[in-house]
Specification:
Structural class: mainly alpha
Largest sheet: none
Oligomer: single chain
Radius of gyration: 17 Å
Helix content: over 70%
Low-confidence stretches: none
Number of helices: 3
Length: 93
């Protein structure tokens, strides 16, 4: 079972909202909207996706990584490496 299962409905809702925002941005471009208005919406959808990513990371750390560290061994090491790599990707983006 994945760590996000308890927050799945909230994550799905946030992702659908972001999807709608992206479609709105596409319409804005198609309609030749003002650049700054489009950039404002891009910033909003980026923030929405960052919120989803941070929630997934929190769930992964509190469920998957915590469980693996209780078990110890190579599985724990791998989960910690995965979490570290995921954090690095989020920081770079």
């Amino acid at each position: 079972m994945h760590g996000y299962v308890d927050n799945k409905a909230d994550l799905t809702k946030r992702l659908r909202r972001a999807e709608g925002q992206v479609r709105g941005i596409q319409r804005m471009v198609d309609d030749d909207a003002y650049c700054i208005d489009i950039l404002t919406q891009v910033s909003a959808v980026t923030k929405a996706l960052e919120t989803v990513a941070l929630q997934l990371l929190e769930d992964h750390l509190s469920h998957c990584v915590a469980e693996a560290t209780r078990e110890g061994g190579p599985v724990a090491d791998e989960k910690l490496r995965e979490a570290s790599a995921a954090i690095a990707r989020l920081v770079r983006s």
